[in-house]
């Protein structure tokens, strides 16, 4: 994932990314229509869920098939808190993230103690179970009781933060929070945690040789993925005001997972592309009078292609292409695009070799 | 205590559907090491092809059903021969993720071609019925339950007592070693995918008859089938059969209990999650990497 740019030249990369993100955040609301602004806000939210799927699959080699369902949990908690209390929006966001993280840890740990495949299956069960529960309960919309559903009256929308009431301001608010999350994950990956993830993903018993308690580290990573999705859920609830169970069907988690893998799990651009495609392709196809269902065919082919070919999917290919173009113009040696996964491997090699991660004391 | 009889009868036929999918998934996993999440998608295409041929193009229902199953088998074998081997060296979760790619392709293409209008695949066996515990059970549902039991026995016999079954199990354990021992990998693989395709096709047609004939629900009915397979610990066909039927009975058996009735369709997934929790307790010392 994003470890590569932080590690290669941290200060410069962070500064450049910050400037670029700030420029995009300022510019985008002024140039796109209200419809596309809402669509981009929702893409931002789902990029957090895709980020979780990406580092779990790319680094730890486990497939999380319930990322969109975790967004629903965060959204439910955010809506419930917002309607029941007067807590600031940001507190709802963090609480939604924490509750979802706790849920993820509770579900992920037992599955990961058996073997990786069971994790994929249990997350699939979770996605399906949450879909069914939400169909029965709905989302809180200002009513009373535990579920907070207003059966008779008008639905109440979730209040946005006072500094981000308009759509444009809320988009920028989401950009800031999502960027913070991406930087946080990038920093984690560049440090000790990233080395542990990399040694687990490498397989071959390296993790056990280094004394890493693999299920605990994997579960913590799943907790982090839950935290990110949960934050996304509250941001989505704030964006729309209400949530609809149809948004969170089990198949949505599968589609988002397919896109996260197809778009690349190493570069931070991968989850962003994945979320843009997740929201944009069906809308675009429909606006061209092509059946949006065809998007699923494209996503399926892209997933198979990424799995079979290895490398780093769409974002990896774009980055390789950009590097090749840059070398052509700067006249440096090498006319072939580099192998996509080289940067990834290079980045993982040294930290493991130099230092032994001090994780032997991780709880068993 | 409400009279649960009718709900149990309904639950057995629902559970038979879960069990059929679960057993096919377990059979293929035991022989190729691929957990096929496209099982529902293959079945959906089979049912929709059969419906198209018989109700849109006027073919006889028998021809339509056979062509539907043949198409499902062709899809299954094509994937098994062309795509699945390319992921053989990947972890089990990656191989399962590959079948999700196939599921999305089949679901997207079927939804695009056939749309999501309400339709149903009526079979000649729907017209006769019998009464069990006060519930009218159609011939199709009876055949479904009997078929599931027969398939369970046949698969168990195949895997345990035939040369092909032995080779299939050897392949699942270690492909390289099996090849060195003279197992014809390609042929054994094709056999497993053919069986999976035929059973997937039959399951799809049965499902298209007893539930909505739409690509999305049929494709994602693979999830409760996976729940049944988890119930069989991905290895035992008998346990999968029992788990599938148990989940179906639990799901419908909760109907008369007002406080939980709206959550009853969560039952198969909740049971599967509990089974994994229990397995993880038992598997403390036998963690396997996959």
Summarize this structure briefly.
The complex is a heterodimer of chains A (364) and B (290). Chain A is mainly alpha-helical. Chain A has helices spanning 3-8, 10-31, 34-58, 67-84, 89-114, 116-137, 167-190, 192-202, 206-209, 214-240, 250-263, 269-287, 294-309, 313-330, 342-354.
Which value, in Å, is the CA radius of gyration of chain B? 19 Å
What average pLDDT do the residues of chain A reach? 81
Question: Hey, roughly how much beta strand do the residues of chain B contain?
Answer: under 5%
Shape of chain B: globular
Q: Flag low-confidence runs of chain B.
A: 285-290
Structural class of chain A: mainly alpha
Give the helix level of chain B as a range of percent. over 70%
Order of helices and strands of chain B: HHHHEEHHHHHHHH
- Largest two-chain interface: A-B, 53 and 53 residues
Task: Describe how the helices and strands are arranged.
The complex is a heterodimer of chains A (364) and B (290).
Chain A: H1 3-8, H2 10-31, H3 34-58, H4 67-84, H5 89-114, H6 116-137, H7 167-190, H8 192-202, H9 206-209, H10 214-240, H11 250-263, H12 269-287, H13 294-309, H14 313-330, H15 342-354
Helix pairs in contact in A: 2-7, 3-4, 3-7, 3-10, 3-11, 3-12, 4-5, 4-6, 4-10, 5-6, 5-10, 6-11, 7-8, 7-10, 11-12, 11-13
Chain B: H1 5-32, H2 39-56, H3 61-83, H4 92-114, E1 129-132, E2 135-138, H5 139-161, H6 163-173, H7 175-180, H8 185-210, H9 215-220, H10 222-231, H11 237-253, H12 267-282
Antiparallel strand pairs in B: 1-2
Would you kindly provide a written description of the structure presented here, covering whatever features stand out?
The complex is a heterodimer of chains A (364) and B (290). Helices cover 73% and strands 0% of the residues of chain A. Chain A has helices at residues 3-8, 10-31, 34-58, 67-84, 89-114, 116-137, 167-190, 192-202, 206-209, 214-240, 250-263, 269-287, 294-309, 313-330, 342-354. Chain A starts with a helix and ends in a 10-residue tail after the last helix. Mean pLDDT of chain A is 81; it is low at 1-7 and 337-364. With 290 residues, chain B is mainly α. Helix content of chain B is 71%, strand content 3%. Chain B contains twelve helices and two strands, in the order H-H-H-H-E-E-H-H-H-H-H-H-H-H. Chain B has helices at residues 5-32, 39-56, 61-83, 92-114, 139-161, 163-173, 175-180, 185-210, 215-220, 222-231, 237-253, 267-282, and strands spanning 129-132, 135-138. Chain B is globular and about 60 Å long. Chains A and B meet through helix 5, helix 6, helix 11 and helix 13 of A and helix 4, helix 9, helix 10 and helix 12 of B.
């Amino acid at each position: 994932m994003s470890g590569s740019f932080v590690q290669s030249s941290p200060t410069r990369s962070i500064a450049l990314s910050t400037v670029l993100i700030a420029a995009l955040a300022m510019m985008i609301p002024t140039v796109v229509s209200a419809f596309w602004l809402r669509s981009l806000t929702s893409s931002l939210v789902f990029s957090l869920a895709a980020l979780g799927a990406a580092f779990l699959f790319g680094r730890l080699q486990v497939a999380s098939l319930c990322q969109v369902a975790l967004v629903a949990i965060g959204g439910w908690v955010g809506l419930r808190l917002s309607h029941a209390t007067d807590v600031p929006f940001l507190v709802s966001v963090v609480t939604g993230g924490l509750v979802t993280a706790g849920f993820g840890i509770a579900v992920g740990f037992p599955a990961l103690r058996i073997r990786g495949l069971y994790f994929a299956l249990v997350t699939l069960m979770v996605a399906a179970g949450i879909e069914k529960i939400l169909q029965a309960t709905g989302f809180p919309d200002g009513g009373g009781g535990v579920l907070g559903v207003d059966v008779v009256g008008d639905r109440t929308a979730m209040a946005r933060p006072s500094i981000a009431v308009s759509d444009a301001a809320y988009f920028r608010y989401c950009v800031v929070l999502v960027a913070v999350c991406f930087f946080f994950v990038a920093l984690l990956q560049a440090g000790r945690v990233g080395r542990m993830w990399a040694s687990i993903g490498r397989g071959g018993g390296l993790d056990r040789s280094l004394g890493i308690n693999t299920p605990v580290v994997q579960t913590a990573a799943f907790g982090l993925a839950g935290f990110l999705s949960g934050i996304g859920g509250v941001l989505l609830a704030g964006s729309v005001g209400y949530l609809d169970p149809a948004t969170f069907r089990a198949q949505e988690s599968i589609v988002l997972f397919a896109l996260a893998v197809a778009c690349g799990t190493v570069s931070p651009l991968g989850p962003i592309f994945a979320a843009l495609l997740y929201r944009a392709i069906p809308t675009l196809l429909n606006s061209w009078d092509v059946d949006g269902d065809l998007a699923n065919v494209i996503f399926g082919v892209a997933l198979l292609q990424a799995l079979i070919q290895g490398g780093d999917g769409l974002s990896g290919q774009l980055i390789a292409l950009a590097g090749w173009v840059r070398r052509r113009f700067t006249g440096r040696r090498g006319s072939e695009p580099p192998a996509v996964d080289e940067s990834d491997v290079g980045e993982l090699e040294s930290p493991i070799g130099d230092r032994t991660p001090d994780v032997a004391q991780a709880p068993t | 205590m409400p009279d649960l009889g009718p709900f149990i009868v309904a639950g057995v036929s629902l559970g038979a559907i879960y069990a059929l999918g679960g057993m096919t998934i377990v059979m293929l996993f035991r022989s190729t090491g691929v957990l096929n999440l496209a099982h529902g998608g293959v079945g959906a295409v089979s049912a929709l092809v059969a419906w198209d041929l018989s109700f849109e193009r006027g073919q006889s229902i028998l021809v339509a059903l056979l062509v539907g199953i043949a198409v499902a088998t062709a899809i299954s074998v094509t994937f098994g021969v062309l795509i699945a081997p390319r992921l053989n060296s990947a972890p089990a979760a990656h191989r399962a993720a590959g079948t999700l790619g196939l599921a999305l392709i089949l679901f997207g293409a079927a939804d695009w071609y056939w749309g999501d209008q309400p339709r149903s695949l009526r079979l000649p066996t729907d017209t006769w019925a019998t009464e069990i515990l006060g519930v009218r059970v159609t011939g199709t549902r009876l055949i479904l339950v009997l078929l599931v039991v027969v398939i369970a026995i046949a698969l168990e016999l195949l895997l345990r007592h035939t040369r092909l079954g032995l080779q299939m199990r050897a392949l699942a354990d270690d492909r390289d070693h099996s090849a060195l021992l003279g197992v014809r990998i390609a042929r054994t693989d094709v056999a497993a995918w053919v069986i999976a395709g035929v059973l997937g096709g039959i399951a799809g047609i049965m499902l298209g008859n007893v539930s909505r004939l739409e690509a999305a629900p049929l494709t994602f009915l693979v999830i409760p089938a996976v729940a049944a397979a988890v119930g069989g610990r991905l290895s035992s066909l008998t346990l999968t059969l029992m788990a599938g039927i148990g989940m179906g009975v639990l799901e419908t058996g909760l109907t008369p209990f007002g406080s939980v009735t709206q959550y009853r369709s969560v039952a198969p997934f909740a049971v599967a999650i509990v089974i994994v929790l229990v397995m993880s307790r038992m598997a403390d010392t036998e963690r396997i990497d996959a």
